[in-house]
Amino acid sequence: MLKEFKDFISRGNVVDLAVAVIIGAAFGAIVTSLVADIITPLILQPVIEKAGVANLAEVSWNGVLYGKFLAAVINFFVVAFCIFMIVKLMNRAMSLRKKKEEETPAAPAEPSNEEKLLMEIRDLLKNK
């Protein structure tokens, strides 16, 4: 059962799917930060000013949060780099395993029916 699980995990499409999910979640954080911290404040600022609010501090709005967005982008690149290193190490381990399997000599092929018959004839002729 452990071998089956190891084979399942080491298949390329499962690894690709896991990488896509992790990278997608990290990129989702970038999009969320872009909308919440940059686009929404830029859209809301003229609306708040038109509403006649003289002091923007009265509104619970902190303005454009470039730092939060930059942190989300840096987080994405850190996650992407870590996933890249993990996949790279996994690919190297898989290639070493395949190379090791190729180096092990294959079992000698079983003689064909013709060869078996010829060996029997040879043995019979020897015994006479």
Distance between the termini: 55 Å
Helix vs. strand class: mainly alpha
Could you say which overall geometry the principal axes of the C-alpha atoms support? rod-shaped
Q: What is the H/E string?
A: HHHH
Counting H and I runs of at least 4 residues, what is the number of helices? 4
Amount of beta strand = under 5%
Q: How many distinct folded domains?
A: 1
Helix content estimate: over 70%
The unreliable regions are none
Largest sheet: none
- Strand segment tally: 0
Write down the overall mean pLDDT.
80
Instruction: Specify Rg, calculated over alpha carbons.
Output: 33 Å
Keywords: Cell inner membrane, Cell membrane, Ion channel, Ion transport, Membrane, Transmembrane, Transmembrane helix, Transport
Membrane topology: Multi-pass membrane protein
InterPro entries: Mechanosensitive_channel_CS (IPR019823), MS_channel (IPR001185), MSC/AndL (IPR037673), MscL_channel (IPR036019)
Subcellular location: Cell inner membrane; Cell membrane
